[in-house]
Write a structure and sequence with these properties.
By secondary structure, the protein is α/β, with parallel strands linked by helices. The chain is 38% helix and 14% strand.
Length: 423
């Protein structure tokens, strides 16, 4: 493999001091986005230094434990169970529901696909499984399809960016094992018509997964803040599984997500079991084998620290910032929202792309320390807005307008970015 550096980095001959390591961290992170200051509108979520400290302390205490076998660490079993119970309330889960703690939204989605595939292979003898989903559904479904040998049938969304339920129904056949909706979908921040999709799933006898990785916490509280929230969770009959990331709007440490199934039978198809080696019985609930107890403990700690009133307060703050930014864009002479945000995500475009390159605006914002996602199609900028942004949204709007003026004046262009990278 071609090396990107002139020299390979080698392990030091003698160990470094903790001070040297701290200084090295300062140096290597010098150009990282200042997410603690609210400069990141993607990838990082911040409810304040006190919450970060609670999460860090819990993670440090349990980071060396191993949740592969909770018989050795019953504390992790208890904390996982209690986290699942609390999350189940947010998700409108029935009393029969059963779930697992996963490492993130991608693993939750992978497991939903794997479970549906194995269920229909076992119970219906489906040999060429497929999934029907809108083009707005997360890219992790493509990853799942590639990993598990499942055909993916993506269907164009409606003009309002929501899933086209009728069109999706036309793509369901005897090999379909799963259909997908989002609450909300990531690219434009709107909630799919979950009841309509659920009815289709029930009619065709297929599973229905709701990806609520972005909305599973915030939507539960937005409905209590006098915002109209359409049916979105397991309270809708026909939803067989739902995912929510706790390390997003739950404000816990990275590596915390939940996938919930309507019952234990559906959940049973997620796990893996073997005794075909010389080490005895091996079983795991998800993609990972060994997994740190740190994220589990941090999730438990943050959820207990914030409590119901804390999450209501944080959701109110994030929604306030979302509304302020969305209103500014709505009345902006050079920008337009792709959709009014149903939750805490929004995406916007340039009214005249030939005159204003929206990616160049992102470049100028990055020069001022603001990190904003780039999307296409269409070429647009995407903001994930959380509690920390309430205190900085006015400054962000000022910089946004100044950066737009610079791009209009100079005619600069920018390059499309990538949500992830293979580097």
């Amino acid at each position: 493999m071609k090396q990107r550096r002139s020299e390979l980095h080698v392990i030091p001959a003698t160990g470094m001091s903790t001070q040297q390591i701290s200084s090295a961290f300062d140096d290597v992170s010098e150009n990282d986005v200042r997410w603690r200051d609210g400069k990141a509108f993607s990838l990082a979520y911040n409810a304040g230094p006190d919450v970060l400290q609670v999460a860090q302390d819990a993670y440090d205490r349990f980071g060396g434990t191993n949740a592969l076998n909770t018989a050795a660490f019953p504390s992790l079993r208890q904390m996982q169970s209690e986290v699942l119970d609390m999350v189940g309330v947010w998700l409108g889960s029935p009393t029969t529901a059963a779930g697992y703690f996963t490492s993130g939204g991608t693993e939750s989605i992978l497991m939903a696909v794997k479970a549906a595939r194995d269920q229909f292979l076992t119970e219906d003898a489906v040999t060429h499984p497929n999934i029907v989903l809108p083009t707005s559904a997360h890219a992790a479904f493509d990853k799942a399809a590639a990993y598990f040998g499942v055909e993916l049938r993506r269907v164009a969304v409606q003009s309002d960016w929501r899933a086209d339920a009728e069109a999706m129904a036309q793509h369901i056949d005897s090999n379909t094992v799963l259909i997908v909706g989002s609450s909300p979908q990531y690219p434009q921040g709107v909630i799919d018509d979950i009841p309509a999709l659920a009815n289709i799933a029930l009619h065709h006898g297929v599973n229905f997964h709701v990806d609520a990785c972005m909305g599973g916490v915030s939507l539960a509280y937005l409905s209590r803040l006098n915002q109209q929230v359409p049916p979105w969770n397991m309270a809708v009959h026909g939803v067989t599984s739902i995912s929510v990331d706790l390390h997003k709007f739950g404000y816990t440490s990275k590596g915390a997500s939940v996938i919930m199934y309507a019952n234990k039978r559906l959940r049973s198809f997620q796990g893996f079991f073997t005794d075909q080696w010389l080490g005895g019985v091996y079983a795991s609930s998800g993609m990972l084998g060994t997994k740190s107890g740190g994220p589990i403990a941090a999730a438990w700690a943050v959820m207990h620290y914030l409590g119901d009133d804390g999450y209501l307060r944080l959701t109110r703050s994030a929604r306030s910032a979302t509304v302020k930014l969305s209103q500014h864009i709505t009345y902006h002479p050079h920008l337009s929202l792709l959709a009014q945000p149903d939750a805490l995500l929004l995406s916007f475009i340039a009214n005249d792309p030939q005159r204003l390159n929206i990616y160049a605006v992102a470049d100028e914002m990055w020069k001022r320390g603001w990190y904003i996602d780039r999307q296409e199609p269409p070429q647009s900028l995407h903001c994930t807005i959380n509690a920390v942004h309430e205190s900085v949204i006015d400054a962000m709007i000022v910089d946004l307008d100044e950066c737009i003026a610079i791009v209009l004046d100079t005619g600069k262009t920018g390059d499309v970015g990538a949500y992830g990278t293979l580097s």
